[in-house]
């Protein structure tokens, strides 16, 4: 009968734990990259991107604050966000109404031409694609301005946790 050295079992357990952590991290990275890849396949039209760029470029500080609030309450409607905090429906409606006013003003004053091109090219989903693109720009700009401990994490930090 062959005996197993107890230290081998401890090392084996450590290796298995590391493999599970790595597999989880690799899985998360795979999920993230597949989401990015799927976005690349279903990319918004150039007209949607042009309108989003125009809206972002011409939005002043107040407009951007209103649009970030809209993006925030939109994300807050998800199950995951509600598990952290629920925003009252009245505040959500107020943020959405303010965003609609801000977007209307921006389109009428600065972005009528790209909005018309979008209306002709993609009347069904064009505005939705534009708003998603605009929200991404706003969120990226906000993240770039903030220094969060999560943003400083490295892959080795994730594996060690």
What keyword list fits this structure?
161 residues; globular; 8 helices; mainly alpha
Note down, in words, how this protein is organized:
With 161 residues, this protein is an all-alpha fold. Helix content is 80%, strand content 0%. It has helices at residues 6-41, 46-58, 61-76, 79-84, 89-109, 112-121, 126-145, 155-160. Helix 2 (46-58) runs antiparallel to helix 6, helix 2 (46-58) crosses helix 7 and helix 3 packs across helix 5 (89-109). The longest helix has 36 residues, at 6-41. It is globular and about 50 Å long. 19% of the residues are buried.
Rg calc: 23 Å
Note the beta-strand portion: under 5%
Secondary structure: helix percent = over 70%
The low-confidence runs, each spanning 5 or more residues with pLDDT under 50, are 11-15, 17-41
In DSSP terms (H or I, runs of 4 or more residues), the helix count works out at 8
Q: What is the average per-residue confidence, as pLDDT, rounded to a whole number?
A: 79
Oligomer: single chain
Q: How many E-type strands?
A: 0
Which term fits the overall shape? globular
Backbone structural class: mainly alpha
Largest sheet: none
SSE series: HHHHHHHH
How far apart the termini lie comes to 39 Å
